[in-house]
């Protein structure tokens, strides 16, 4: 199974999430890749849209490989393989500090004139464009759960099977369209997996929601 691009993946996910249409869900995207997807899903479900800010902690000498993740409060999820990847306590603290700086810069740029939408008491759908290690999704679900949603949903188009199992205990529902045993990288399941830049995130977040039908 391959998707043309993130919007195609979002259309498929919106179909799988159709039971939440009418509940006015809050869709939270993990920046930056999932932001176009989250906006499209929120519009399809007639819900609200925002971002949940988390950052992966990259491995020493291999920053694209996550050994954990951090949320805006500074809470850290550390993956079981972190020590094997050479990420000692001092390294983790340095990486945490650096990624927190990035999160603060992004919050200031993405939503400078408002607070994040409160998820308390709501159906909340956390969206990413795929799960590789699952670290950022774990941090995102932890961050949202701490704020008291009525129901917490994890939604992704594609995932590594072991990462999918790792996130299941953290959500009330997990929606994944494809979890192949030969998973190796999220981008392999998209024909177009181009980089999403900050200016596109800002533009999408500033766009008014699509009106629900009367």
TrEMBL record:
Span of domain Phosphoribosyltransferase: 19-178
Source organism of this protein record: Quisquiliibacterium transsilvanicum
Protein name: Putative phosphoribosyltransferase
Recorded superkingdom: Bacteria
GO MF, any single term: glycosyltransferase activity
Keyword Transferase: yes
Signal peptide interval: none
Pfam families registered for this protein in UniProt: Pribosyltran
Keywords annotated in UniProt: Glycosyltransferase, Transferase
């Amino acid at each position: 199974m391959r998707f043309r691009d993130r919007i195609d993946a979002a259309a498929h996910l919106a179909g799988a999430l159709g039971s939440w249409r009418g509940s006015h869900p809050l869709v939270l995207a993990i920046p930056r890749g999932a932001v176009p997807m989250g906006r499209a899903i929120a519009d399809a479900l007639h819900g609200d849209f925002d971002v949940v800010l988390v950052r992966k902690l990259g491995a020493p000498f291999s920053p694209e490989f996550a050994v954990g993740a951090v949320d805006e409060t500074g809470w850290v999820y550390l993956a079981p393989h972190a020590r094997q990847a050479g990420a000692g306590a001092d390294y983790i603290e340095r990486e945490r500090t650096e990624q927190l700086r990035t999160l603060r810069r992004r919050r200031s740029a993405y939503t400078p004139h408002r607070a994040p939408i409160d998820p308390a008491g709501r159906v909340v759908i956390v969206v990413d464009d795929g799960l590789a290690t699952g670290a950022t999704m774990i941090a995102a679900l932890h961050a949202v759960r701490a704020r008291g949603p009525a129901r917490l949903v994890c939604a992704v188009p594609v995932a590594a099977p072991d990462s999918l199992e790792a996130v299941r205990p953290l959500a009330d529902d997990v929606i994944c369209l494809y979890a192949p045993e030969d998973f190796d990288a999220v981008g392999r399941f998209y024909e177009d997996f181009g980089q999403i830049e900050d200016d596109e995130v800002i533009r999408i977040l500033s766009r008014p929601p699509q009106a629900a039908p009367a």
